Amino acid sequence: MSKGNVPSNGKRRPDRAALFIAVFLAAIAGIMFWDVSRLSTIASYSRIGPATVPFVIACVLMVLALWTALEAWRGDFPEREHQEVGPVVWIVGGLVAQLLLLTTAGFSIATGILFAAAAAGFGRRKLWITIPVGIVLCLGIWLIFAGLLQLSLPAGPLEHLFL
């Protein structure tokens, strides 16, 4: 067996990852079709209503799912590069940390930690620099959104110093 989707006999086999993506796209389209069927029961005086755009998007997703499945079955996708898991773990870990810290630590600290984790995922591993820089940048963003635009973002101990 050689590398990729090409066995030793020269014929390409179906791309399992692409087939999984096709199934995922079809599942999303199915959920949207189900939701559109509920929306279409709402009485509307015109042919274009709240279900029109979601129906079009679901149709496009279903076409993409079928197209992806066809291309995957043929094995026509180019060979993918090796994926590094480390950067993905850093970024997903930063998102989880932000979600867990948002209500207790506030927007600036939680999002500053997300900033530092994303920077580490992209190769900048000096957390002692990126965490404070991220917190300061996010505090500036919080001050603009909460102070000038009067939008409600989660406030923590750092944000309460400025209110």
Task: Map the helices and strands.
Blueprint: H1 16-39, H2 52-74, H3 85-105, H4 107-121, H5 127-148, H6 157-160
Helix pairs in contact: 1-2, 3-4, 4-5
Organism: Pararhizobium capsulatum DSM 1112
Domain DUF1468: 20-154
Keywords: Membrane, Transmembrane, Transmembrane helix
Estimate the mean pLDDT confidence. 86
What is the makeup of the main sheet?
none
Global geometry:
flat
Low-confidence stretches: none
The fraction of residues assigned to DSSP E strands is: under 5%
Q: What Rg is obtained from the alpha carbons, in whole angstroms?
A: 23 Å
Pattern of helices and strands:
HHHHHH
N-C termini distance: 65 Å
Assembly type of the chains comes to single chain
The beta-strand count equals 0
Give me the secondary-structure category.
Answer: mainly alpha
InterPro entries: DUF1468
Transmembrane segments: 17-36, 48-70, 90-115, 127-153
Domain DUF1468: 20-154
Protein name: Tricarboxylic transport membrane protein
Give a structural overview:
The structure is a single chain. The longest helix has 24 residues. The chain contains 6 helices and no strands. The mean pLDDT is 86. Helix 1 runs antiparallel to helix 2 and helix 3 runs antiparallel to helix 4. Helix content is 67%, strand content 0%. It is an all-alpha fold and 163 residues long. It comes from Pararhizobium capsulatum DSM 1112. Keywords: Membrane, Transmembrane, Transmembrane helix. InterPro entries: DUF1468. It holds the Pfam family TctB. This is Tricarboxylic transport membrane protein.
